[in-house]
Design a protein that fits this description.
8 strands, 11 helices, about 300 residues, five-stranded parallel sheet, single chain
Length: about 300
């Protein structure tokens, strides 16, 4: 069932007056539906569209039933988990909705899953990554067209951006994180999911994008001095060239920056040839590491000189 909210709920979530919400509804800035009793209700789709068009975030997610204080460093309470049968069914539904370009159904499934786990990292690992692994297999087997796979990627990217907007802006005191995908790697979804996962746990995370040479990535890291840098490696054009360029990158990167690498192209035979601080196979692993690093960073910032 599609989620609908009252103007009062939205006002509390955005920390504005209820009269302002009603005025925006009357002007058509926020699309509404009416109950049988004639009361305004704001569908989730309409709320997200309003946030996008006005460049707003939601300061108080608890007002609309999404209390992020329930996140326990990505440890999901057993009672909140779906059964294996439910998870398999939802995964199949999402896969089908992505293949056929049903954006509304994809949004519903992702929001529903997130509402049950309160963890975007879990959502990314258990639903999005698994769905795209299956979609990739179907494409390689010739069972779906390439346009369907690309459309699914574009659709999912839009929905991940909507999740990004659900989280309030991190504190200016929060640690910074930058990330990118290397030259020849055009897979955008991994970096987008990492950015949202880190923002969820309070980092100032910025995804620099795909197909970036390591020398320009190095300039960004030297300029901004992030506490954490993640490198997504889903595809390599020339493995030997990458190893050589990465060695130069590692030797030149600021020592205080934690370097985290991940991606399916970092095989068991390739990783021993690289130097890095940590390797993460999943978003949940990265999120747990980020929580620990953030605690250390804030303690250090608060310590008297």
């Amino acid at each position: 069932m599609e989620q609908n909210f009252s103007p009062k709920q939205i006002a509390e979530a955005l920390r504005v007056s209820e009269s302002s919400i009603k005025r925006w509804c009357d002007r058509g800035a926020i699309q509404t539906v009416k109950t049988l009793g004639g009361h305004r209700r704001i569908p989730l789709d309409s709320l997200l569209a309003f946030l996008e068009s006005t460049n707003r975030d939601i300061p108080d997610l608890s007002a609309i039933g999404m209390d992020l204080s329930s996140v326990r460093r990505n440890e999901i309470p057993p009672e909140a988990k779906f059964s294996s049968q439910d998870a398999t069914t939802r995964l199949q539904y999402l896969q089908d909705a992505l293949i056929y370009g049903d954006e509304k159904e994809c949004r519903r499934l992702l929001i529903e899953w997130y509402g049950s786990t309160s963890s975007f990292a879990c959502l990314g690992d258990e639903l999005i990554c698994r769905a795209f692994a299956q979609i990739g297999d179907l494409w390689h087997q010739g069972k779906i067209e390439i346009f369907q796979e690309r459309r699914a990627c574009e659709l999912c990217g839009r929905l991940i951006h909507e999740f990004r907007r659900l989280f309030a802006e991190p504190s200016p005191m929060a640690p910074k994180a930058f990330g990118a995908a290397v030259t020849g790697d055009y897979y955008a979804l991994p970096g987008q999911m990492v950015e949202v996962s880190l923002r969820e746990v309070g980092w100032q995370a910025v995804n620099l994008g795909v197909n970036l040479p390591l020398d320009t990535i190095l300039k960004a890291v030297r300029s901004e001095r992030p506490k954490l840098f993640w490198l997504s490696v889903s595809h390599l054009i020339d493995q030997e060239k990458f190893v050589e360029d990465y060695s130069d990158f590692w030797n030149a990167i600021p020592r205080e920056t934690v370097v985290v690498v991940g991606g399916r192209a970092l095989t068991d035979s390739l990783r021993p040839r690289l130097q890095y601080t940590a390797h993460c196979d999943t978003l949940q692993q990265l999120s747990m590491l980020a929580n620990s690093l953030k605690s250390q960073y804030l303690l250090k910032q608060a310590a008297p000189i």
